[in-house]
Design a protein that fits this description.
The protein is an alpha+beta fold. Helices cover about 20% and strands about 35% of the residues. The protein starts with 7 loop residues before the first helix and ends in an 8-residue tail after the last strand.
């Protein structure tokens, strides 16, 4: 798997959805944090994305369950990338805030978990999304909401 940051000049002409779909079909590289966190983008359509993650022992907290920071990372990724899938070429975004509800711990040996994110509302400058994280048996592990700020990328023409 190709892992590297993408120079803006290589992706500026792509919509957010085109960029995400390029990562899914591996014509574009995954971001470096994907290796560190064991999180993979598996599907993307406008307003909806799915990630899978492998909660490894490296992510254990002192009690031996998966650290909430890892769960927050996959949840932020799925909710933010749902918004990313709605971006036009030249637009960028950043997370303004997110709120998570942890329903049950992720235990050692949990296997691959699945995170699904959808856009709830998309305006000109802000978007909200929601995410849900499931274990291999389909049990809800966590859910949350996120607000993202949408902006024109530097060096891109401003929108009217």
């Amino acid at each position: 798997m190709d892992i590297r940051p993408l120079p803006l000049k290589e992706i500026a002409h792509l919509s957010g959805l085109q960029m995400l779909q390029g990562m899914v079909d591996r014509t574009l590289p995954a971001p470096p944090f994907a290796v560190t966190t064991a999180i993979t983008l598996v599907s993307a359509e406008e307003g909806k994305v799915v990630f899978e993650g492998e909660p490894k022992p490296a992510f254990f907290n002192p009690l031996g369950t998966i650290h909430g920071g890892w769960t927050a990372t996959i949840m932020d990724s799925v909710m933010a990338c749902a918004v990313h899938s709605t971006l036009a070429p030249g637009e960028g975004y950043t997370t303004l805030e997110f709120k998570l509800h942890f329903c049950r711990p992720i235990m050692p040996g949990a296997g691959i978990v699945r995170a699904e994110g959808i856009v709830l509302s998309r305006g000109r400058r802000a978007a909200t999304s929601e995410g849900k994280l499931y274990d291999t048996a389909g049990k809800l592990l966590a859910h949350g909401t996120e607000t993202c700020l949408i902006f024109d990328m530097p060096g891109q023409p401003a929108k009217a």
